[in-house]
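Technical annex, item 7. During the second reporting period the consortium partners agreed on a shared format for inverse folding records so that results from different sites could be compared directly. Each record opens with the tokenized structure and is followed by the designed sequence. A conforming record, contributed by the partner at site C, is shown below for reference.
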């Protein structure tokens, strides 16, 4: 196997500490959380107390000022253990960066320290019942009133951290007539009149991750609720496009980590499980199949590591991020399917980790932009397709 050169000794010390946190505070309870459909709120506070939330945020806003590789380590460890109930990555590396990059100084001081401590849980509300990957098609509106406030109306679905969320960045049209160019990002807090959380959605996988519907019925928002203030009114779509490459890389990083974990557990299982008097691993078909999968995952890791280097240098382009997202998530699903097959009947039993990995993998090809949309992005970068 190729030795990875991304991480130094400090990174690996952080990996060890975070793995111990997951082993103690997450994995013993994850099955219970799957049954109830959400993780206990206390795990967010414990993560904040240990410095595991928003590690890349500047110290002045409550973070550790660490580089993105610390977050990469968290993605790898979470996906490698199948601790998919945790919505830390969206909270720390999507919600918080939006506020850091585009928020006013007042917004940064108000929200970032509370996100870093775990006092607040963050979510971002993009998808709607009739608008998923097509963000220009959102119907939610935030119309400015005569007194400078905004009136927010609409609904969102498939919202990660939606049930626990104390702060939601809501994608809404502040100028509906302008289409995508009339989109803004609105800051909405728990408890605002007219903001209601719907049922927790029951899913094929990610069963411990709270995923909810959100409803906004004439929610009156203060005039300073636009993320970034007046300067960013109607510029939300640009912000979304700027941040999507990193979001898609997070999916790719998790995909590779989960695929490698699935191979490792399948190697162990096939060495132990006997068929016709010999281990499943003794059969050439098993060994060759695992060799093929390991080769493809190794290729994926090299590509993803290179993309990660580009992220750290602010050089990763949208098309390459889309390539990483679509190809690794397709590969992840392929690996899970083959590994379930090599587990035989036990691969279909929920008590076996491979079954949960299989169920959790399927959504990777859908969220963050479907893989079909990823291919469309790539073709446009090639000078092909619609203009």
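Designed sequence (site C submission):
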């Amino acid at each position: 196997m190729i030795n990875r050169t991304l991480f130094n000794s400090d990174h690996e010390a952080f990996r060890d500490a975070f793995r111990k946190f997951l082993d103690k505070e997450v994995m013993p309870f994850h099955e219970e959380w799957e049954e109830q459909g959400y993780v206990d709120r206390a795990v967010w506070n414990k993560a904040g107390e240990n410095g595991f939330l928003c590690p890349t945020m500047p110290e002045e806003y409550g973070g550790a000022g660490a580089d993105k590789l610390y977050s990469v380590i968290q993605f790898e460890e979470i996906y490698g253990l199948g601790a998919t109930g945790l919505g830390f990555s969206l909270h720390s590396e999507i919600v918080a960066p939006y506020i850091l990059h585009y928020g006013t100084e007042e917004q940064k001081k108000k929200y970032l320290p509370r996100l870093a401590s775990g006092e607040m849980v963050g979510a971002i509300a993009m998808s709607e019942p009739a608008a998923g990957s097509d963000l220009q098609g959102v119907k939610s509106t935030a119309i400015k009133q005569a007194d400078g406030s905004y009136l927010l109306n609409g609904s969102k679905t498939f919202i990660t951290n939606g049930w626990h969320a104390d702060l939601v960045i809501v994608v809404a049209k502040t100028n509906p007539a302008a289409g995508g160019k009339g989109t803004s990002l609105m800051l909405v807090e728990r408890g605002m009149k007219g903001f209601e959380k719907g049922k927790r959605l029951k899913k094929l996988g990610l069963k411990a991750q709270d995923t909810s519907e959100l409803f906004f019925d004439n929610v009156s928002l203060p005039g300073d609720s636009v993320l970034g203030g007046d300067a960013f009114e109607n510029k939300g779509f640009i912000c979304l496009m700027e941040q999507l490459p990193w979001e898609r890389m997070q999916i790719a990083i998790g995909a590779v980590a989960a695929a490698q974990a699935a191979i490792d557990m399948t190697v162990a299982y096939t060495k132990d499980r006997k068929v016709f008097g010999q281990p499943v691993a003794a059969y050439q078909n098993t060994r060759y199949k695992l060799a093929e999968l390991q080769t493809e995952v190794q290729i994926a890791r090299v590509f993803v590591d290179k993309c990660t280097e580009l992220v750290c240098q602010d050089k990763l382009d949208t098309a390459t991020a889309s390539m990483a997202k679509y190809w690794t998530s397709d590969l992840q699903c392929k690996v899970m399917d083959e590994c379930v097959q090599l587990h035989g009947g036990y691969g279909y039993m929920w008590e076996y980790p491979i079954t949960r990995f299989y169920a959790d993998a399927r959504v990777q090809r859908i969220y963050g932009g479907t893989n079909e949309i990823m291919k469309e992005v790539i073709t446009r970068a090639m000078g092909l397709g619609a203009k």
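The chain has three domains: 9-121, 123-234, 238-381. The chain has a mean pLDDT of 95. All partners now use this format for quarterly exchanges.
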